[in-house]
Specification:
heterodimer; A: 381 residues; four-stranded antiparallel beta sheet; B: 480 residues; mainly alpha; 20 helices; extended
Chain lengths: 381, 480
């Protein structure tokens, strides 16, 4: 340890401490002047504001903490929907970009270039204020297949009414756990005896049979509830029954998945192109069928390239879902950092909680990704 | 004459297959074309579903007939190789062609044929097409926001001047080439800042701006006579000295006199807006986030633990939160952290927030480049007796930065696309202005035109940037 190494560190530390000290001193003075005391006690107070769309039971009599939960769940909901669709579109477009069909390749390329180069906020506004506003009013809506209604007030789709839903969910979980065991067993069998087990068909079979058993034996049954139009007043109509997807949710999910899909498509393309030609040729030359080449040689190597950047895109999508605030979809930012902040005036506490939530989310995922990266990285000597 | 087998076309009877195939294919396209452009249904005598799918079946058969390998006809081989390799590809190609033909008429009629171009009020737009008169009327606002009309030449002049100064690099002779980095990294941002801060903002401080110009010109002229050994110190000290001298010693009395003369009208930043604000915000964030990111990336790879962990913490913090919460913080939480009498303009706060946010991303990109360099480069530089800074400036960074050009360009692109978010603090750039115009009672119902217009503008900007970065990447690609 010498002087040259200690001095810059000391200076940086002093500067950081001074900046933090300056800020916290000012914050204290400011809060004293305004008569606010710092603390998170307000979370248990009655919130007395309503939220348009909520997955859990909520109204004004619940606490601010519950409002926070409502916002968080809505954020997670739109993120999950966006991730599912972005993955599907992204993989299809990414493969289409590798097609040897000129028209398909160009169409995919135009899609990617177009949606990637337009700000996400603009796309959200476009879907919400322009595209979905062109839909008909509820009373004029044409049913699609007789059960789906696309209206300006949102999409109305049939809902399932479940009896004993918990048993059904347990059966699905049991199916998933047994699939994991089947895979482990098949792998062990292949390593010991060299015999391949048809894991995919067994898995699909399990996923169908176990839930089916729950219907037959567990007393689960589901009925479908179709939305029916209802007149509220002379000019106002709405649909009763079924599930209502608010237009905010739809436009947000649409914009997020179309935008993120372009990035995922590029990841997929880069991944498949990243597997060297020699690998495919070598695999073919030892007598593997094209399907086996894809499954056993190309995909494992391509996935190693695809997965890390794709997870990054999932993370970006989750963070971008905070743009919901712009079209009043009640996500974490709008409900908590917007409405709750306005009502309580506790800027520091609320903004810090919101930021910490997102921070926890991304750091958890990046720790998991680092672990996964280490696990799948090529082990070189 | 060989036997014709229409199930498996081959090279014998090539022309029989070719003519029948091309005939069927053209027929299918003609049917769809007539249907979509002239609403003529050639196949209306058939039952509904069959009539609907007939073009697809005919075209598919046609493509099947011309799918002949190594036919010897160049045109046919190109078609077969590109759109007609197998049945599935043929079907997809047909679907795409039909979709394009089907979607052209409505798009054309909305964009051009039924659209209204003339007029300056809502009544002019009666057709079913787009109302471009709306864009025309609001164009000024979309470009300049609430900036007073009479003063808009100041924005134009600044942008033209900055574009010109930015283009200087292309015309520099060999002798000046070595100063270009210095120019672009230090001098150009300062000039740009002076322009925007003093010229676009205006007000009595405009005179400061003229002092700045005078100081810069004088110091550059004297600079030619300074021996190159002292040039760096000279340019660090003298311009600021001359500026201070001019402001506080020579013209101090005159300033008070001049202040009475009507200078440029002061335009507060709240009135700035439109596309010009997009440019201003992205330009400054671009300038500031790069050096900050560079230092953060060096800090993250440093051997000194305190610096390393502070850098990691800083980078991971900004990368972990969405930009919108950062802007929220800068607007509602940041004022709490300042002394009560201290006020920072919201545009400045936004620029600082976005710069720090993007700097974290730039830092990660540059770190990737630093990691990609082989250890030998570090060892070689050290063995020549170079210190930390010398090693990085002359050996490591030039190579590392070349490697990360695409990544940095992507980050800058993301930055430009993130600028609309400043609506959170109440600054209205082009998307914000659109939302404002949309709610104007005299112009209700033209949201679509506005968004299409803004999309085209952003697409042009971002696409040009990404193509430029691609060229840059090709230009600096060096074999190692």
């Amino acid at each position: 340890m010498n002087f040259k190494k200690i001095l810059p560190q000391l200076l940086t530390l002093v500067v950081v401490i001074l900046v933090f000290g300056f800020f916290s001193y000012n914050a204290q003075v400011n809060m004293e002047n305004r008569g606010i005391t710092f603390g998170y006690g307000f979370l248990s107070q009655e919130s007395s504001f309503d939220v348009q769309f909520s997955l859990i039971e909520y109204d004004g009599s619940h606490s601010y903490f519950r409002a926070y939960l409502v916002g968080l769940l809505n954020t997670i909901l739109v993120s999950v929907i966006g991730i599912v669709f972005a993955t599907i579109i992204g993989v299809v477009v990414g493969i289409a970009r590798l097609s040897n069909n000129y028209l398909i390749e160009r169409t995919a390329a135009i899609y990617v270039e177009f949606f990637r180069n337009i700000p996400l906020l603009l796309q959200i506004f476009f879907w919400y204020f322009a595209a979905l506003r062109a839909l008909p009013l509820p009373e004029k809506a044409e049913p699609i297949f007789g059960v789906f209604f696309l209206t300006i007030k949102g999409f109305f789709v049939p809902a399932f009414v479940w009896n004993n839903l918990d048993i059904f969910i347990y059966s699905v979980i049991a199916a998933i756990i047994s699939i994991v065991f089947v895979r482990l067993y098949a792998k062990k069998k292949q390593e010991n005896q060299g015999i391949q087990t048809p894991v995919l068909s067994i898995s699909i079979g399990l996923l169908i049979i176990l839930p089916l058993l729950s219907f037959l034996l567990g007393g689960v049954n589901a009925s479908v509830e179709i939305p029916v139009i209802e007149q509220l007043s002379q000019t106002s109509f709405t649909f009763k029954g079924g599930l209502k997807l608010p237009p905010e949710l739809i436009s947000l999910a649409l914009a997020l998945s179309l935008y993120t899909a372009t990035f995922i498509a590029e990841c997929v393309r880069a991944g498949v192109q990243g597997v060297s030609k020699g690998q495919k040729e070598a695999a073919a030359s030892i007598g593997l069928t094209p399907n086996q080449v894809l499954k056993l040689v190309v995909m494992p190597q391509a996935l190693r390239i695809i997965i890390p950047p794709t997870t990054n895109q999932y993370l970006n999508l989750t963070k971008n879902s905070s743009l919901a605030a712009a079209i009043a979809y009640p996500d974490l930012v709008l409900v908590f950092a917007g409405t709750a902040l306005m009502q309580t005036g506790r800027a520091i506490e609320i903004v810090s909680i919101t930021m910490l939530t997102y921070l926890t989310l991304s750091i958890t995922i990046s720790i998991f990704m680092n672990w996964y990266n280490k696990k799948i990285a090529i082990k070189e000597k | 004459m060989n036997k014709l087998n229409f199930l498996s076309p081959d090279k014998n009877n090539l022309y029989a297959y070719l003519y029948s195939g091309i005939g069927l294919f053209s027929l299918s396209i003609l049917i769809v074309f007539l249907n979509s452009f002239f609403s003529l249904d050639l196949t209306s005598f058939l039952p509904g579903t069959i009539s609907y799918f007939l073009p697809l079946i005919i075209g598919f058969t046609g493509l099947h007939l011309i799918r002949i390998e190594y036919s010897g006809i160049k045109f046919l081989d190109i078609i077969n190789k590109n759109i007609n390799t197998n049945k599935f590809n043929a079907l997809l190609s047909l679907l795409i062609i039909f979709a394009v033909i089907k979607s052209l008429p409505p798009l054309l009629s909305w964009f051009i044929i039924d659209a209204n171009f003339a007029g300056d009020s809502k009544d002019a737009c009666s057709g079913s097409g787009a109302c471009w008169a709306y864009i025309k009327t609001w164009f000024n606002r979309f470009m300049y926001g609430m900036y007073p009309n009479a003063e808009q030449w100041r924005i134009n002049l600044s942008f033209i001047a900055l574009a010109f100064l930015g283009g200087v690099g292309f015309f520099a002779t060999e002798k000046f080439k070595k100063y270009l980095t210095l120019y672009y990294v230090i001098i150009y941002p300062i000039i740009a800042f002076l322009f925007i801060f003093f010229f676009i903002s205006g007000g009595p401080i405009f005179f400061d701006f003229s002092y700045g110009i005078i100081a810069a010109v004088i110091s550059i002229i004297i600079g030619f006579f300074i021996p190159s050994k002292f040039k760096m110190y000279y340019f660090l000290i003298i311009p600021i000295t001359i500026y201070i001298l001019l402001k506080y010693v020579f013209f101090y009395e005159e300033l008070i006199e001049l202040g009475k003369i009507q200078a440029f009208e002061w335009v507060e930043t709240g009135a700035w807006g439109g596309l010009s604000l997009t440019f201003i915000v992205s330009f400054f964030c671009l300038i500031f986030c790069f050096p900050v990111g560079l230092f953060l990336s060096l800090g993250r790879r440093s051997d000194l633990p305190i610096i390393k962990y502070i850098s990691i913490g800083f980078i991971e913090f900004w990368r972990g939160v969405p930009l919108i919460t950062v802007l929220f913080m800068s607007s509602v939480m940041f004022p709490m952290f300042l002394p009560e009498d201290m006020f920072i303009d919201k545009l400045v706060r936004v620029i600082i927030a976005i710069s720090l946010f993007e700097a974290a991303y730039v830092a990660e990109v540059i770190r990737g480049g630093l990691q990609a360099l082989p250890r030998g480069q570090y060892d070689a530089a050290k063995s020549l007796g170079m210190g930390y800074w010398k090693m990085h400036i002359f050996v490591i960074l030039p190579q590392a930065l070349k490697l990360v050009i695409p990544g940095i360009a992507n980050t800058f692109l993301a930055l430009v696309k993130d600028t609309p978010l400043i609506f959170v603090v109440g600054l209205l750039e082009i998307v914000g202005m659109l939302n404002l115009a949309k709610t104007n009672p005299e112009w209700l119902g033209f949201a679509m035109e506005g968004y299409v217009f803004a999309s085209i503008v952003f697409f042009i900007i971002c696409y040009a940037m990404s193509k430029y970065s691609y060229n840059l990447e090709q230009k600096y690609k060096t074999e190692r």
